[in-house]
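User: C-alpha cells for this one?
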Amino acid sequence: MKIRVLSRKSDLAIIQAYEFGEYLQSKFPDTEIEYLTKSTSGDKDLVTPLSEMSSEGVFTNDLRDQLINNQCDLIVHSWKDLPIEVGKQTIIASTLKRSDKRDILFIKKNKINKDGVINVLCSSPRRKYNLENFIKNYLPQKYKIVNFENIRGNIPTRFKKFINSSENNSFIVAKAAIDRILLNQIPRFKELKKELKNYINQCFWTIVPLSINPCSPGQGALAIELRIDDNKLNSLLKKINFKADFENVENERKILKNYGGGCHQKIGVSYIHHQHGTVVSKRGEDEKGAHFEDWYLEKNKKNKSSCNNIKQIYPESLDNYKIFERKQINETAVRISSLKNKCVFISRISALPNQAKINSDNIVWSSGLKTWKKLASKGIWVNGSSDGLGEDFDNNISALTNFPWVKLTHKDAPISNIAERIETYKLEKLDFQIDTKEKKYFYWMSSTAFKYTLNKYPELLEKYHYCGPGNTYNEIYSILGHDKNLFVELSYDSWKKKLLNI
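Assistant:
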C-alpha cells in the first residue's frame, strides 16, 4: 500500500512527517510512503503575529485543499496549528504518542542579567500572560521589568535571530519542537541538530511547569488528517492511534472552544495522563478579561465519605504538622559542592545543606514549586520540576542532557527510581500527640511520617489517608497492603479545601 504524506516545508514539519511515517512502517512494514511538502500562508507571512492574522488555520488550510483535491492521502499537522473546526470533508483520524507539552525558556549566558530588565522573544498571548509571573518569581536573577517582542519563523530561524540579537536576552518555544529536532535521526538534518545544539550551549534553559503555564491545546501532539470517505486508510490509522493522548487533546480543544477559540486567546489548558487519573491544568483570561486558573486530578478514585468539621482532619494546618526534627548532615556539603555533570534532584529545600554549592555544570530539578522558589531565592538556577506529581513522573530531558541522576534526600528515605543518592539530613522523631478518636482524615507529606505515626497509633489503619501521587503513595500503599482507604490529592491545600468544602 502506497501512502502520500503531506506536511509543511519547514524542517520541523518534515521531521514530524517522518516520525509518523517511520512509526506507521514499524507497524505495517509493507507500507510505501511518499513524502510531499507545501508552503502555507503562515509560512509566507513571517511578519504578522499569529494572534493578529485575519483567519485561523494559516498553517493548515492550504494543506487541506491538497487533501480534498486528492493530491495527497493524509496530512501530518502539529495539532495546535489546527483551527477548532476542521471542516466537513476531512477528519482527524489518529495521533501518535504525544511529546512534551511544556514550553522551554532560554536565556543567553552572556546576558543573564541586564540591569533588572529581560527582553523575551515571544509571539504567543498565552505565554506572555503566564511568563511574567514565572520570570519574576522562579529565576535566581531578579527581573523587575519583563518585555516581550514578537518573533516569527521556523525554529532554527527564530533561534538564530535570538542568538544574534543584541537587545533580546531570552526566547521561549515549545519543548517538543526542540526535542524532535535534537532526537531525529534523518541524515539530511545532521547539520541542523549540530547548529541547534550550538545555540543551546550558549544559553541557560528552564522548562516552565504546566501548573504555572499550561500548554496551547494540542501542543506536542501530531494530528493525522485524511478525507472523511477514505475508509480503508481510516481503518488502518485507528490501529496506531494513541487513544488516551487523542482524548486529552480533544478535551483541551473543547475547553478552548468554550472560551471562544483562536490563537489570540490568553488561554492554556493541559490534560496530563497520570497513573492515578488525569491532571488538568487551566490558566488564562476569558474574553471579558476575567482571570481563571485550576490544577486538579480528574477521574481519580474519590472518598465518598464527608467531613463534618476541621477537628476531624490531621493536620488542621501545616503549622502543627511536626512529626520530625530535621538535622543536616554537614559533611555532605563538600560532596554536593564537588558534583559535576549530574542531574541533581532536590526533594525539598532542607535536603540542600546550607554550606553546599551547586556547580553550574549540573542540571537542577526540584520536586515541586515551593522547593523551586526557595532554591531560586538562594541564587540557584533550576532547570525544571516534577510539578508535585512525583519523582517517578517522566521528566523527559533526554534530548537536552544525558547526565546521570543523583537525589538529595534524608537518611531513611525509601528506595526510588533514582539509584544514586546523597543523604543530606536525618529525621529525629518528636514526641507528638494526636486525638485519634476525633481525627478521621489524614494527609501525609511523606511515607516516613506515616510509618512513624502508625507505629505510635496502630488504630490509624482504619482511618482515611491522603497524599501526593508519587513515592509517598506507593510506600503507604505497600504498608497498608490495599488502597480501599488511601486516596490521592495533589496538595495539602487542595485536600483541605475539598474535604471542608471551602
